[in-house]
Amino acid sequence: MSENFSKNLLKRVMIIAFVILFLFSFDALRVFYISVIKGSEYSAKAESQQISDTEIPAKRGSILDCNGNVLAQSATTWDIFLDPSNIKSEEKRTLIVNGLADILKLDDEGKSELLEKSKKDTMYVVVAEQVENDIKEAISTFKVENKVANCIGAEQNTKRYYPYGQFASSVLGFTGNDNQGLYGLEYYYEDELKGTNGRIVTVKDAQKNNLPTDYETSIDAVDGNSLVLTINQNIQYTLEKNLRATLNEYKCKGAYGVVMNCKTGAVLAMSSMPDFDCNEPYKLTYDTVKEQISKITDEDEKKQAESQAVQNQWNNFAISGTYEPGSVFKTFTASAALEENIVTLDTTYTCTGSIQVEDYKMNCHYHPGHGTQTFAQGLANSCNPFFITVGQKLGVHNYFKYFEAFGFTEKTGIDLPGEASSQYYKENQYGIVELSSAAFGQSNNLTPIQICTGISAIANGGTLVKPYVVDHIVDAKGNTVKKTAPTAVRRVISEDTSQKVRSMMKGVVDNGTGKNGYVAGYRVGGKTGTSTKLAESTDGKNKYIVSFAAIAPSDDPEVAMLIIVDEPNEDLGGGALCAPIAAQVIQTAMQEFNIEPVYDDDEASTLPIDTPNLIGSSLGNAKSSLENSGLKYKVVGNGDSVVRQSPSNTSKIPVGGTVVLYTEKGEKNTVTVPDFSGMSISEVNSFAAENNLNIEISGNNLRQSQVVAYQQSIEANTECECGTVITVTFKSINSVLD
């Protein structure tokens, strides 16, 4: 009995010992599993509950024009988040959801999403991004008043603003919701602009409250650098205004322009229409395209068309598109031929309207033929057969040597994303037909920035310069950290050849196809161009891309530009559509460069004169003074002396204009401004006189009689005072597709 008891007891002790050993082993394995295998994961979870790590976003650098005008900037906004783990009751959840939905102005769908987020098994969920400070303050008040501060939080963020909307959009680009550059300069200079985010790390207690600042670590954010551009706001505005007007009037596929300082390569203006609002880059802006899309009935097809249209309006054709430059390229053929002494300015050729090149008959745009003309006249007339013969005399090797020297086989290297490569015949691919066609601007596809850079080389004395958009970069304290130095790529032609081609280009504006490029007081050189888009002429009707290259002043150029209009709805050439735009841009650019106009005798005779100060004079003396100045007058009132006049003595008035003399105090006599568009000079003068208005004539009016008004300084149907001076600009629409 005793022995059996001892054996049973021993057995029980061993079983208990085994169980205890097993339990200890299990616990040891569990500890090992938790501390070693799952250690990092549980440590991270514990740390996430004990530590608050808040990112402080860096402020993105601004973008400014050359005069310091802000084109893009960042401002502080707030991200609103919930801590659902602290929402302990449905009553509190309803209170928070209704309150936030009201402040954030959420619709029913947005309110439902907010409710779902409030139920998530997490301590942090963002419910609104980049809200303005007034909304953030309203939420802060709501938190305090309803005692839900531990459920709702706000984190600092930044939002990108573009004060001028569509202004220079194809250059500036835009950013995404995360403030990362997605397009244009915003993308290209992302590393400079973005800065470095900071952090605040705070330790929490068991109740998730922040401990004193002794337990807080912070790293300051470093704000991004700012870009100061070569873009001039006034020149850019003039370019965009005129491109947009032409785009809308002629329902074009596109209208593009590049303006450069020809001596340095600095881009003064660049635009590709249709463009977009940098603040709303996904929104279509071009009414013609919107109308076309609205007619699509299939929803999938419509969405695809809308997506493609958005992509198209982002495209900066000036650097990302290629086209056949047409007759603008004749300036480069002329440069090569003069440099190689193939021709002189006085070399003659007799144009019969066409020329036979092997099996091809190549026509001149003027089918009857220009007859015998000098080389300078050949460029002014944009004579294809003349330049075909010059190209043939130049030969493939010399032609391609200058084609390459002007930079047409390589990208310019401009500091913008998406620069396209040109598409061209290699030297060993040319036959006589290809050479003949290339000599007057067909066959090869180049980018507008390449063409404008080449024109700059002709203008500046023969040196190819690298184009650039950013002049310098400054840090958050305003210190310059990087400066762009003008880069001379290579000498292409001599000073002498440059001067000769410039004089030929001036002849194009004075006597040839570019008369609409004329600007009174300045010597403008230019060249028109047209190319047929054969690949896109699927409906049996030709589609054209027309252009005008310009330099000014032609004797010592400061600016070079290229204006392009793509597929206008009328068969008008670059002389009719692009040259008037160039003239407007040149006028602004000359003012920005402080270049004083120099008028010839004909121009001087048409200049407006100072309006005499007649206030306080007797009516008789005022009349005599005006008559002696060659001015007319109109009297309003029955008094004996002048108490007010229009125009005022601080204004200019055209010779032969009318001054309205008020002899009694009272309301001003006003008139509705007529729409002068499409009228001749005589019709405008007559109509203005009937309405007691003064007209100052501008544009292509001294070089050609058949001109019509297309622009006026005061919009039609607005009210103005009688006697007001309105500048009306004229152009010729008798243009050739050269």
Outline:
The protein has 738 residues and is an alpha+beta fold.
**Regions with little confidence, pLDDT below 50 for 5+ residues:** none
Helix content estimate:
25-40%
> What's the total helix number?
23
The averaged pLDDT comes out at 90
**What structural category do the secondary elements indicate?**
alpha+beta
Count of discrete domains: 4
Shape: globular
Rounded to the nearest angstrom, the distance between the terminal CA atoms is 129 Å
CATH architecture type of the largest domain: 3-Layer(aba) Sandwich
CATH top level class name of the largest domain: Alpha Beta
- How would a textbook summarize the main sheet? 7 strands, mixed
Briefly note the CATH topology name of the largest domain: Beta-lactamase
Radius of gyration: 36 Å
Number of strand elements: 33
Q: Can you identify the CATH superfamily of the largest domain?
A: DD-peptidase/beta-lactamase superfamily
Report the portion of residues in β strands: 15-25%
Strand-helix topology:
Elements: H1 2-37, H2 39-50, E1 51-56, E2 63-64, E3 70-82, H3 90-104, H4 108-118, E4 125-131, H5 133-146, E5 152-161, H6 169-172, E6 174-175, E7 181-183, H7 184-188, H8 190-193, E8 198-203, E9 217-219, E10 226-229, H9 233-249, E11 254-261, E12 267-273, H10 287-294, H11 299-314, H12 317-320, H13 330-339, E13 348-351, E14 354-357, E15 360-363, E16 371-374, H14 375-380, H15 384-405, H16 432-439, H17 448-459, E17 463-465, E18 470-474, E19 480-483, E20 488-491, H18 495-511, E21 525-532, E22 544-552, E23 559-566, H19 574-577, H20 579-592, H21 601-604, E24 609-610, H22 619-628, E25 632-636, E26 644-646, E27 652-653, E28 658-662, E29 670-672, H23 681-690, E30 694-699, E31 708-712, E32 719-721, E33 725-731
Parallel strand pairs: 2-10, 25-28, 30-33
Antiparallel strand pairs: 1-8, 2-3, 3-4, 3-5, 6-7, 8-9, 10-18, 11-12, 11-23, 13-16, 14-15, 17-20, 18-19, 21-22, 22-23, 24-27, 26-28, 29-32, 31-33
Helix pairs in contact: 3-4, 3-5, 9-20, 10-11, 13-15, 13-18, 15-16
